[in-house]
Amino acid sequence: MNSKRILQINSSILGEKSYSKRLGNAIVEKIKEKYPNSILEQLDVVERNIPHLTPETLNAMFTPEEEHTDETRQALQLSDKLVKQLFDCDILVIGAPLINRTIHSSLKAWIDHITRRGITFGYNSAGIPIGFVSGKKVYVAMSSGGIYTDEQGKEHDFVAPYLKSFLGFLGMTDFTVFKAEGLHVPIIQDTALEKGINSIVID
Ligand SMILES: Cc1cc2nc3c(=O)[nH]c(=O)nc-3n(C[C@H](O)[C@H](O)[C@H](O)COP(=O)(O)O)c2cc1C
Hints:
Layout (H helix, E strand, L loop, with lengths): L4 E6 L8 H16 L4 E6 L10 H7 L8 H6 L1 H12 L2 E7 L7 H10 L6 E3 L5 E3 L5 E8 L6 H4 L5 H10 L4 E8 L6 H11 L5
Parallel strand pairs: 1-2, 1-3, 3-6, 6-7
Antiparallel strand pairs: 4-5
The chain binds flavin mononucleotide.
Flavin mononucleotide binds next to helix 1 and strand 6.
């Protein structure tokens, strides 16, 4: 099959200069080289200004189907749309800048909206969590001012381990990270993006 549905999510606050966006674009290009008839859908969670979960949204998420009202359905509209968009893709490409050691809050808000008990995750009879968003490939395009791949840096990276853990919880266990790192480190910054792009392998 030479066609994949790609969902590219961007979460940079640096506009078109964004390194994670450019790295993510390179990932998308390489996916398209492998699957030329792929269809790309893009979601910029900063531009879209994905809102934080509100008490109304949370309440609606836990309202049983038969008790829904116009208000609870309205409160779930965005979440329902984001969940559908996620289920509809084969490959997820997430641009994830490291902001104050973790993901940007708009990307976290997106995660909060796609985390739906009974829809994207559940528990088996033994209480073990089961992720229902299976069969997807996830590529993360991570960018950072510092370097987080060495032993010293690893413990301060709350982007890649968090995304791997949480998306895995939702069933997205096929997870690969490519990095443009050291973007604020003299000399290293000159080649950081190129190095990240050259490391891309589409499996
Ligand atoms: C508000 C803010 C906080 C940041 N915090 C960190 C940080 O904690 N560690 C780090 O290595 N880089 C940090 N950076 C640098 C970004 O990771 C770097 O600028 C990266 O290029 C951002 O990704 P983007 O170009 O895709 O927006 C921060 C940048 C901003 C704007």
